[in-house]
Design brief:
about 475 residues, mainly alpha, Growth Hormone, Chain: A, globular
Length: about 475
C-alpha cells in the first residue's frame, strides 16, 4: 500500500520532471543557440543572480504564507515565462524573463526541499525509522525522477534540431580550436554551430511551454497541502515581517552553514561547467549543436539512475563515502578534459564524460540537499534558501567569467573549488558524527508558541530577533 507521503513525493517529482524538461533543455542550448554577443550565457547569469537576490528574503515569506504547495505552483509560472522569452530571443525578452525566473527559483526549490523533509519526517514517525534515512530515500526518489528531465528535454531538442537541413561536416582546421587546446572563447564559424531554422526553434520552445504548463497542473491538482494548517497559523500569529525577512541571513550565524558554503558553491560551478562549457567547447564545436541533446541525455540518464541508487545506498555507506566518490569522479574528468582533444572519430568519449559527471552530480545533489534538511530541521525554509543562494552564486561566477577566461583557466578554477570542498566538508561531517542533530519537525510550532507567549501582541523588534 502506497502511503500518502510517498504519493506526494511522486507528485512533486513528476511536476519537477515536467517543468525541468523544458528549462533544462533550454539551459543546455543557451551557450550555443543564443551565442550572439554572449546573450544566452548572460541570460543564465541573470537567472542565477536573481536567484541569489530572491534567496535573501522570498523563500521564508512565501512558504510560510502560501504553504509549500502553492509556492511551488506560483513559482513554476516564473519558469514558464522564460520559455516564452525564448520564442523571440533578444535582450528585451530574455533578460526580463530571466529575472522573473530567478526570483521564483529559490522559493520553488526551498518549498520542494521543505516539503520532502516534512514528508520524510512524517513517514519516519509512522514507521518508527530514523528521519534522516527516510529523507535520504525521498530525495533519492525525487532526483531519480527529476534528473531524467535532462533525457526528455534534450531528446526533444535533438530530434527537432536533427531535422535541420543546414548540417555540414567540420574541417580538421576547425577541430583544432575545440576543447582546451585553444582558448575556447570562440567557436570556429561553420554551419554546424549556426542557429537552427527559426521554425524548428519555435516548434521546440512551443513544446517546452506545453510541458511547463502541465507541471503546474500536476502539482495544483494532485499534491496534498500538508502544511496548510501551519501556514494559516503563521498568517494569524502576527510574527514581524522583518523576522521572516531576515531568516536566511540569521542562519549564517551557525558555523556549520558557513563551512558548507564551498560545497554548495561547487555544486553551482560543476553544473554550470557541463551546461555552458562542455556543450559549447567540446560537443557543439566538434560534433555540432544537434548533438548537444544526445550528449546531455547521457548525463541525465546517468544522473537519474545514480540519484535513485545513492539515495538508498547512503544509509549503508554514509554520506562521506559517496562524497568521496563524487570528488574522485570530478577530479578525473577535469584532468582528462585538460588534455583531451575532441574529434568526431572519438564519438564514445563525448558520452563518457557526461556519464561520469552525471554520477558525481547525483551525489552532490541528493546528499547535499539531504544534509541541509538533517542539519537544520528547525529552520528548513531558511536553510534551503541559503542552499539556493550559495549554489546560485557558484552559477553566477562561473557564467560571468565564461565569456572572457580561457577554457583551461576555467578548469583550473573548477579544480580549486573541488579541493576547497574536500577540505571544508569533512569538518561538518565529523561534527555531525560526534553530535547528531535531533529531528524536530515541529520546532517551528514550538517557537511560534513561545513567541506568542512572550509577545502576545506580536510586536518584537528586529534587532532583538537577530
Amino acid at each position: 500500500m502506497v502511503s500518502r507521503n510517498f504519493k506526494n513525493v511522486l507528485v512533486v517529482s513528476l511536476g519537477f520532471l515536467s517543468l525541468f524538461t523544458a528549462y533544462g533543455g533550454l539551459q543546455s542550448l543557451q551557450s550555443s543557440l543564443n551565442a550572439e554577443e554572449g546573450m544566452g550565457v548572460t541570460s543564465l547569469s541573470v537567472i542565477y543572480a536573481s536567484i541569489i537576490i530572491s534567496s535573501m528574503f522570498l523563500p521564508p515569506i512565501m512558504i510560510k504564507n502560501l504553504g509549500c504547495k502553492w509556492t511551488i505552483v506560483a513559482t513554476m509560472a516564473c519558469y514558464v515565462s522564460y520559455s516564452f522569452g525564448n520564442l523571440y530571443p533578444g535582450w528585451y525578452t530574455l533578460i526580463p524573463t530571466s529575472v522573473i525566473l530567478g526570483l521564483g527559483g529559490s522559493p520553488l526549490w526551498s518549498a520542494k526541499c521543505t516539503y520532502l523533509t516534512i514528508s520524510g519526517n512524517k513517514q519516519a514517525a509512522v514507521e518508527g525509522k530514523k528521519g534522516s534515512d527516510v529523507i535520504n530515500q525521498y530525495f533519492g526518489i525525487f532526483f531519480f525522477i527529476f534528473q531524467s528531465s535532462a533525457v526528455w528535454g534534450n531528446l526533444m531538442s535533438s530530434l527537432i534540431f536533427g531535422q535541420d537541413t543546414n548540417i555540414a561536416d567540420i574541417s580538421e582546421e576547425q577541430l583544432r580550436g575545440c576543447g582546451a587546446a585553444d582558448c575556447g572563447l570562440t567557436i570556429p564559424s561553420n554551419s554546424t554551430t549556426s542557429r537552427p531554422e527559426q521554425k524548428l526553434v519555435w516548434t521546440l520552445v512551443g513544446c517546452y511551454i506545453g510541458v511547463g504548463v502541465l507541471a503546474m497542473l500536476i502539482v495544483a491538482v494532485f499534491l496534498d497541502n500538508i502544511d496548510q494548517e501551519r501556514a494559516s497559523r503563521f498568517r494569524g500569529s502576527g510574527e514581524p515581517f522583518c523576522h521572516t525577512f531576515l531568516a536566511t541571513f540569521r542562519l549564517l550565524k551557525d558555523w556549520r552553514m558557513l563551512i558548507l558554503i564551498p560545497l554548495t558553491m561547487y555544486s553551482g560551478f560543476e553544473q554550470s561547467f557541463l551546461a555552458g562549457e562542455y556543450t559549447k567547447n567540446y560537443v557543439t564545436c566538434a560534433l555540432g549543436i544537434h548533438y548537444v541533446g544526445f550528449v546531455m541525455m547521457c548525463f541525465g540518464a546517468s544522473n537519474s539512475l545514480c540519484s535513485f541508487l545513492f539515495g538508498r545506498l547512503a544509509r549503508y555507506t554514509g554520506r562521506a563515502a559517496l562524497f568521496l566518490l563524487a570528488a574522485v569522479a570530478n577530479f578525473s574528468c577535469i584532468i582528462g578534459l585538460l588534455y583531451w582533444r575532441p574529434h568526431p572519430d572519438q564519438l564514445v568519449v563525448f558520452f563518457v564524460y557526461p556519464a561520469l559527471w552525471g554520477m558525481a552530480d547525483a551525489i552532490w545533489q541528493t546528499q547535499t540537499n539531504a544534509l541541509y534538511g538533517i542539519l537544520f530541521p528547525a529552520e528548513k525554509e531558511a536553510a534551503f534558501a541559503n542552499y539556493r543562494m550559495w549554489e546560485s552564486l557558484g552559477f553566477v561566477i562561473a557564467f560571468a567569467y565564461s565569456t572572457f577566461l580561457c577554457l583551461e583557466y576555467k578548469l583550473y578554477i573548477l579544480l580549486a573549488m573541488l579541493l576547497l570542498t574536500a577540505v571544508t566538508y569533512p569538518v561538518v561531517e565529523y561534527h555531525e558524527h560526534k553530535n547528531p542533530t535531533k529531528a524536530e519537525d515541529d520546532q517551528h510550532d514550538k517557537e511560534a508558541v513561545a513567541m506568542a507567549t512572550a509577545f502576545p501582541t506580536g510586536k518584537v523588534s528586529c534587532q532583538t530577533r537577530l
